[in-house]
Amino acid sequence: MYNSLPRLFSAATLALAMAAPGAWAGGVGLAPHQAVYEISLERASTASGITEMSGRMVYELAGGSCSGYTQNMRFVTRVTDRNGTSILNDLRTSSWEAAAGDKMRFNLSQYRGKELTETTEGTAGREPGDAMVEVELSKPATRALQLEGKVYFPIQHSMALLEAARQGRHQFPARLYDGSEQGETVFETNSFIGNALPKETALTGVPESLRGVAQFGQMHAWPVAISYYEPEARGTDAAPSYELAFRFHENGISSNLLIDYGDFAIRGKLTELTMLDAEKCKPGQ
After folding, report:
1. C-alpha distances in angstroms, 226 versus 14, 50, 162, 170?
2. How far apart are CA 218 and CA 202, in angstroms?
3. 194: exposed, middle or buried (C-beta count within 10 Å: 0-12, 13-18, 19+)?
4. For a disulfide at 23, which of 19, 122, 195, 255, Cβ 3.0-4.6 Å?
5. Which among 191, 159, 162 has a CA at the least distance from the CA of 174?
6. Exposed/middle/buried for 102, CB within 10 Å: 0-12, 13-18, 19+?
7. CA-to-CA distance for 104 and 98, rounded, in angstroms?
C-alpha cells in the first residue's frame, strides 16, 4: 500500500508575486487567497495496491513584495488497499520566501494516522549575485548543505513559469528546491505550457459559484504540466517520479488538478475559494 504521497504543490501550487484581483497589468501577479480542493482517485493499477482514495487539500497564500510570501498547505487523504485496510495520510507544509528570492524558511510534517512519521525544518539562502544556496537543516537532524548551480525556490519558480507562459514559451526546465524529501533533494523539473486559452474556455473546471470570486472571466489561463525527476535522473531517459497537470490562471490560482504517480493518479477539484486581503506596504518598504 502506498503509505505517503509526495508534496502536491512542491512547485506548482504556484505562489507568485502578488497583485490584487483584476490588477493584471502586464506583470507577474497573484491574488492572495485560500483554495480548497476535493481529492479523488482518478485511476489505479493493480500494482499500486490502491482501491479507493478520497481527501481534501487546503492551500493558502498570503503576504507580498514587502514582507515576503507565506504559503500554508494541508493535504489529507484516506487510502484503502485491496485488503480493505485504510490509512489516513496528513501532510502539512508551511514556508516563507523573501520577495527577492534570496531567503526561505520551511517546515514540513507527515502524519500516518495520528503518528508523526516525518518532519523537516530549515532555512535556505544565498548572497546577492551568488548562485550557491546554503541550507541549514534543524530537523530531522542538524545538517548543513550546499546546493550548486542555479536553483529556484518555489515562488521564484512560479514567477518564472508564469512569465514563460505569458511570453508564449512551451517548455521551461528548472532545478527546484522546496525543502521536501527531508530537505536533501533538488528536483529536476520540466514544465510544458500549452497555448493561452480564450477567456470563455479558461472558465472550464471552475465552479460557477466561484467564477466571480476572483474575476476568472476576465483572465486567460494556460494548461501546464510539470514533470518532477530525482537528481540522479539528470541527463537520462528516466521516467519522472510524478507529474502534475493543471490549469494556470493569470492570477496564479490553479484549477483542474491531476497528479500522476505512475501506478495511480488523483484528481483535485477546486470547490472553495476565498480571496484574502492584499498586503499594504508601510512607508519606506
Report:
1. 11, 24, 13, 12
2. 10
3. middle
4. 19
5. 191
6. middle
7. 6
Closest to 135 in 3D by CA, of 150, 118, 147, 149: 147
Quote the CA–CA distance of 266 and 257 in Å, as a whole number: 8
Residue 283's φ and ψ, nearest 5 degrees, are -55, 135
**3-state SS assignment for residue 267:** strand
**DSSP track, 86-119:** EEEEEEEEEEEE-TTSSEEEEEEEEEETTEEEEE
Whether the upstream peptide bond of residue 140 has omega within 30° of 0, thus cis, is yes
What residues pair up with 274 in beta bridges, in sequence order? 34
Distance CA 78, CA 56 (A): 9
- Would you say the C-alpha torsion 100, 228, 11, 106 has a positive or negative sign? negative
Nearest to 101, CA basis, from 20, 144, 160? 160
Burial of 46 (0-12, 13-18, 19+ CB in 10 A): exposed
How many CA atoms lie less than 13 Å away from 194 in the CB half-sphere? 15
Q: Which residue's C-alpha cell is 490509512?
A: 87
End-to-end CA distance of the chain: 50
Between CA 181 and CA 188, with CA 186 as vertex, the angle to 5 degrees is: 120
pLDDT at 32 over 50: yes
C-alpha grid cell, residue 234: 539528470
pLDDT tens sequence across 127-169: 877 778 999 999 999 999 999 889 999 888 888 888 899 899 9
Per-residue pLDDT of 262-280, as tens digits, reads 999 999 999 999 998 888 8
How many Å separate Cα 27 from the centre of its chain?
20
Coil, helix or strand at residue 77: strand
